[in-house]
Fold:
Amino acid sequence: EAGVTQSPTHLIKTRGQQATLRCSPISGHTSVYWYQQALGLGLQFLLWYDEGEERNRGNFPPRFSGRQFPNYSSELNVNALELEDSALYLCASSVGQGPHRIQPQHFGDGTRLSIL
Amino acid sequence: DQQVKQNSPSLSVQEGRISILNCDYTNSMFDYFLWYKKYPAEGPTFLISISSIKDKNEDGRFTVFLNKSAKHLSLHIVPSQPGDSAVYFCAASAYAGANSKLTFGKGITLSVRP
Structure:
């Protein structure tokens, strides 16, 4: 079974540009989560999508946005990039909400975003 | 305000001995706890979880203990192996209200000496 896949592995941008990160969940998983791991910090929750809807977002500005497609894959978009956006962006997936809602999240290997 | 705390940044143990990794939390709404292991250049790998209705969960060499009154959980690895050397993250979630986000600690670097 394929795990969570993320692309690209590395992304280099300059200040003010826009970045798009992509994530494909494990087959059968309908929930996708995005986390940011900046240098020296733990993983910070960004966004949660389930069944195509944004269900929750963390304490990040609106220039962080995303969407989930009908095949449950997801995009994270970061507009007006700032130097402090340099971080590892991790995507995770899990079985969606419902009777089996208490299920662990499984992570991809991340996209390393560097802002010059 | 850090709701999940892993106060020891690192731990070193001898191969074959027990590794005990600790985690404290402050949010009494948390009802599901997980441990993840992370190697460099890889994403976190799920290890073991525990629901707040239990106080112990075991999976092979890994056992997680939960003390709700103390808001404390620990991960025991017995016996420790060199391949266990990694960063270990404790995470918690509050499922009441269908809030599925995980709140992570900052991680503990475990080194297992041969």
Notes: The first strand of chain B starts at residue 4 and ends at 5. Chain B has one domain: 4-113. Residues 21 and 75 of chain B are 5 Å apart (CA to CA). Chain B touches chain A through 24 residues (CB under 8 Å).
